[in-house]
Amino acid sequence: MIKPQTSSIAYTRAVARLTAQSVVQTRLADSDGVSEVLVVCPQVSLIGCEVSSGRVNYSGKIIFTVAFCDEEGKLCRMQRGAEFSHFCDDASLAPAQTAVCALSCERVGIRRDGSAIVLSAVVTAQIDVFSPAERTFITSCDGAYLKTQLKEFFSYVSFSGECEVEDDFEADGVDDILVPAAEALVCAASCGTGEVEVSGDINLSLLAMRKGAPAGFERAIPFRCIVPCEDSAPGALPRVCAEVRDMNVNAAVDDERGKCRIQFTCTLAVRGSFGVRSEQTVATDAFSCTNAVESVRAEESACVVCERKVYSERISSAASSKAKLDFSCRFLAVACPRVEYEYSSSAGAVEGAVLAVLLYEQGGEVRSTQISMPFSVRVGSSEGVRVSASVCGVSVKQPAEGRVEGEGLVKVSVEYPRNSSVSYLVSAEEGQPLPPDPGAITVIVPASGDTLWDAARKLGCPPDEVFAFNPGLKYPLSGRERVLVYKKSR
């Protein structure tokens, strides 16, 4: 009679990685005094994310900062905010699960709707879902022989936290800040004892007024955020996203020094997950000399970060624009630089475009147009790579009439994955009796690479007896040997 003994361990598994998009918009009424919109900069942040039956519900807020010309041609600014909620459906979702959600903005739009102006942006949500589970495996079995192996398992832990980031720097001649834009790029992250440490840069881009004309400023602000996490596994590398929220930028004049100082403060929200590694001895195969063994097998897979790298590449190329630019245009400032990109596993590169708003003067009027510069950064081919990118130091020039060139520094942070998979037995039952042996000697010709266990399974004989009857064999076998056993009649 086959009687297996089992053990159970609670763990957390990764259920799904989902992507959802929604369009968020707000309106500027004609009473706002807007003659022409020059720059629109959206800043999105997460409010909450919950898992229900078959659905993830998430909500957030978006703040559009707008620089515009009023009816008298004066440059002004305003902010409009909107809250939104959206969902993503998947049949595997259940209320007991948890989710880690990262939001990003792309494809900002401006359109007229009667006397109003509608501002819109596409908000993309990347959602990782985790679920509590129980792992049951066979530890021993009466009446059958077990092949046991030490296997690698993972249990996921999610975390989140906030930190305050402050910075101040001099900017001579600044009269006012029109549009601030900030984006965080995670450059390093690691798990310590009871905490997760995340560090990187906040790329701050400012469209300001200097001596009555628009001007652009950029600054890289380093950050280091410590997130408490009781279940942190020292040495593990987490997947992390960082989000700038509650940003405040002020220009203050130092009368004593005759300088202007820019004061920057924000709340940086950090969230992510990591896999806690453990090793367990589990049964991967079973057989009996008298009966067939009917077993049930479980499969587990995990994907964890094994390495993080940051690539920096200076790009310089021709830039395309939506407006016709010539020598009658005087370039004033570049505002709200950002990147739109995709990872190509076939090319092993992050490919996309640097986008920015160019403010220029033509015919005594200040105008704007979006410019675009293509880029490609090689990071190597690997399935499951996750990338994030940012750009700073963007400048535009016109070396020849009608020809626009731009340059900037693109930084790409890459999380390289390591995939782990394991198969093991969760149950075993006694099946039909095996037919009797026709003779006292059984001989097999093994396959190349067969182990002692493989030979014993084919012979239906305990591994120690196979070893005793064939003491001169070396495993794994080459496939040219003959393996025999002497059996007692049943």
Describe the structure.
This protein is mainly beta. Among the domains are: 309-416, no CATH class; 435-490, Membrane-bound Lytic Murein Transglycosylase D, Chain A (Roll). Helices cover 3% and strands 74% of the residues. It contains two helices and 21 strands. It has helices at 452-459, 463-469, and strands spanning 3-28, 36-52, 55-69, 75-89, 98-113, 116-142, 145-170, 174-192, 195-210, 213-228, 239-254, 259-287, 291-318, 320-321, 330-344, 349-362, 365-378, 386-400, 403-433, 441-444, 483-486. The strands form seven sheets. The chain has a four-stranded antiparallel beta sheet with strand order 14-17-16-15, with no helix packed on it. Strands 1-6-5 form a three-stranded antiparallel beta sheet, with no helix packed on it. A hairpin with a 2-residue loop joins strand 5 and strand 6. Helix 1 (452-459) packs across helix 2 (463-469). It starts with a strand and ends with a strand. The mean pLDDT is 92.
